[in-house]
């Protein structure tokens, strides 16, 4: 799994058009967040069969990262553009739901944007040293 994390003052998205692998019903088609760690998340073929291991490591890293930057909101934003070796869309959808649920169980204010939709988004990334990070699991 590859993740681009951006600590944003503001992040807004709107689902515009579904792809053939779109989830139904989609998670909220629109979202507007303040002081949020946006996690552009890409599920890869090499993640298949390692989901629980990845979720465990991811949750611990997110708790550490949000603690360091003083942010309690996290948005999991499916983003296939980080890899050319994508995993099964069906498994990816389930994985991202489980990932979001695991964060919620650990007290993280976690949200997820819709999987398989073309989305517009605007963001205002903070400029501190920890505002941008790349993670690979």
Q: Can you offer a commentary on this structure?
A:
There is one protein chain. Helices cover 26% and strands 39% of the residues. With 137 residues, it is an alpha/beta fold. The protein has one domain: D-tyrosyl-trna(Tyr) Deacylase, Chain: A, CATH 3.50.80.10. Strands 1, 2, 3, 4, 5 and 6 form a 6-stranded mixed beta sheet that branches. β3 (73-78), α2 and β4 (109-112) form a beta-alpha-beta unit. α1 packs across α2 (89-105).
What's a quick, concise take on this entry?
The chain has 137 residues and is α/β, with parallel strands linked by helices. The chain contains two helices and six strands; from the N terminus they run ββαβαβββ. The chain has one domain: D-tyrosyl-tRNA(Tyr) deacylase (D-tyrosyl-trna(Tyr) Deacylase, Chain: A, 3-Layer(bba) Sandwich).
């Amino acid at each position: 799994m590859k993740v681009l994390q951006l600590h944003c003052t503001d992040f807004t998205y709107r689902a515009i058009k579904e792809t053939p692998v779109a989830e139904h019903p989609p998670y909220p088609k629109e979202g507007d967040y303040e002081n949020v760690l946006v996690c552009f998340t890409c599920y890869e073929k090499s993640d298949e069969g390692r989901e629980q291991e990845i979720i465990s490591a991811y949750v611990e890293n997110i708790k550490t990262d949000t603690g360091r930057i003083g942010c309690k909101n996290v948005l999991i934003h499916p983003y296939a553009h980080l890899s050319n070796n994508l995993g099964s869309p069906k498994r990816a959808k389930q994985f991202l739901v489980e990932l979001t649920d695991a964060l919620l169980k650990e007290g993280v204010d976690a949200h997820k944007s819709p999987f398989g939709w073309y989305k517009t988004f605007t963001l205002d990334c903070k400029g501190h040293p920890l505002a941008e990070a790349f993670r690979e699991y």
